[in-house]
Specification:
This protein is α/β, with parallel strands linked by helices. It has helices at about 15-25, 40-45, 60-75, 105-130, 155-175, 195-200, 210-220, 225-235; strands spanning about 5-10, 30-35, 50-55, 85-90, 135-140, 180-185, 245-250. Strands 3-2-1-4-5-6-7 form a seven-stranded parallel β-sheet, with helices on both faces.
Length: about 250
């Protein structure tokens, strides 16, 4: 029996690491694309039935990662896996400040990681696997901040809104293809990750919503990375995945 293949970005820590661990435990072959390598994933892969390859890749240069992914996928047997999935999970939180206070040199990198990289990786994935006769899925990890504005978060909100809309466009394109991929941009809820720590540590004079993030932590409203990963992977496994290309795990 062949294994499912999953490509996962941002897998070295936080929710991405939790997803990687759960996918390996479920028998997936895994390609992780992250800024750093996680040695425990290699150790877990040796204990599990699946395989784990890790690429150390800076997604602020997404064209390099996309070209490498397309070449790698093209070298795999089209009938070698039970299914193939891309999960665009990596994200970069820009400086928490009004747009006018952020140096121009800082904005392009954040937009490349949060929007350009998912677009280029999705394009490469779809092109390289279009002849595969197995189920294909793309899951983009979005955010509630892509669906409502927040002061001092202009770049992040814009990138996630762009992710939502490009996913909806791709869903229309793939629906017209034979064996088109099923795609979804999913807001995963509020999760206790390094990003939340950064938001709670922001300068109150620069971030009007600081109190909301502190309050969610104090009231125990944050999901753990492991719990969030379990819910996301269950959503990905639903038979109706992709029926709505923009979704929220809390709905």
């Amino acid at each position: 029996m062949t294994h499912p293949l999953t490509i996962l970005t941002g897998a070295s820590r936080g929710m991405g690491l939790a997803m990687a661990e759960q996918l390996l435990a479920a028998g997936h072959d895994l390609l992780c694309i992250s800024r750093k390598r996680n040695d425990e994933l290699d150790a877990q892969a040796r204990r599990a039935a699946g395989r784990c390859d890790q690429w150390v890749q800076d997604l602020s240069r997404p064209e390099t990662a996309a070209a490498r992914l397309e070449t790698w996928l093209a070298g795999l047997p089209a009938d070698g896996y039970a299914a193939v999935t891309l999960i665009n999970n990596a994200g970069l939180l820009p400086r928490i400040a009004p747009l006018s206070a952020i140096p121009a040199v800082e904005l392009p990198g954040a937009l490349r990681v949060d929007l350009e990289a998912p677009m280029l990786l999705t394009s490469a994935f779809l092109r390289a696997t279009q002849s595969w006769r197995v189920p294909r899925k793309v899951l983009n990890i979005s955010s509630g901040l892509g669906r409502r504005p927040m002061a001092s978060q202009a770049a992040y909100c814009a990138a996630k809104a762009g992710m939502d809309l490009f996913t909806r466009c791709v869903a229309l394109e793939e629906a017209a293809r034979e064996n088109g991929a099923r795609v979804c941009s999913l807001a995963p809820g509020v999760i206790d990750t390094d990003m939340q720590v950064a938001l709670r540590s922001a300068d109150a004079s620069q971030f009007p919503d600081l109190g909301n993030f502190v309050g969610m932590k104090e009231k125990g409203m944050l999901s753990s990375p492991a719990d969030a990963a379990t819910r996301i992977l269950a959503f990905l496994a639903r038979p109706d995945f992709g029926a709505n290309p923009q979704a929220d795990i809390r709905d």
